Amino acid sequence: MQTITRKGNFDSAHRIMNHKGKCANLHGHTYIYELTIQFNEQAALENIDNIGYPIDFADLKSLAGGYIDHYYDHALIYNPCDKELVEIVKKNPTWKALPMWLKGEVGYCNPSVENIALQLYVELEELFYIHDCPFIMSNLRIYETPNSYADVKGKEMNHEVHSRLCDKASDLMRVKEWK
Asked: What domains does the chain contain, in order, with CATH numbers?
C-alpha cells in the first residue's frame, strides 16, 4: 500500500464548555490539517485513466480541501448544548456556524481538536465513499497549535463506533450535496 498526504488549513472559532482555563472563552485557531489517503499501487497503475495514481493532488484539494473551506473555514464550531452560543447563532442566521454532531441525541460534544478531527474524518470518509474514490482514508491529523495536534487513524478505530459515525455522516446534507 502507498499513501499520499495533502496539507491545508482553516480558521475557526470555538469554546470548550466547563473548561477550567482559557478555553472556556470564545476564541479561534488556525487549524492545520494533514489528510493522508491510502491506495493499492497495482490498482493505481492499472487506473482506467492511465494516470498511475488514484487522485491528482489538485482534485484532492478541490474535493476535500474545498469541503473543509466551505464548511469549516471561518466557522463557529460549537457544542450543541452550549445554550449561550446556540442563542447567539439563532440571532445571527448569516453566521457560518457548525454544531458538533458526534454524540447524536445526547448532544453534548465539545469542539475540542480531538472531536473536530474525528467529526471531519468521518465526513471526509463518507464524501470519498459517495464520490466512489479509489482509495481509503488512512489518517487525518489536525494541529490546533504548532505544538498540539490530534490524529484519527481509520484502521485503528473501533469498528462499531466507526460504522455508527459513518452512518450519521452519510445523513448530513452538506456531505450529500458537496460536488
From this structure: 2-177 (3.30.479.10)
Residue in 46, 74, 84, 131 annotated catalytic? 74
74 is an active site residue: yes
Residue of 23, 34, 81, 166 with catalytic role? 23
Residue written as grid cell 465513499: 129
Stated as kind and residue range, the H or E segment containing 58 is helix 57-60
Picking from 123, 6, 121, the residue whose alpha carbon sits closest to that of residue 53 is 6
pLDDT digits (tens, 9 = 90+) for 129-150: 999 888 889 999 999 999 999 9
Let me know: does 33 contact 112? Beta carbons within 8 Å. no
Angle, helices 159-170 vs 113-130, to 10°: value is 70
Between CA 54 and CA 41 the distance in angstroms is 9
The model's pTM is: 0.92
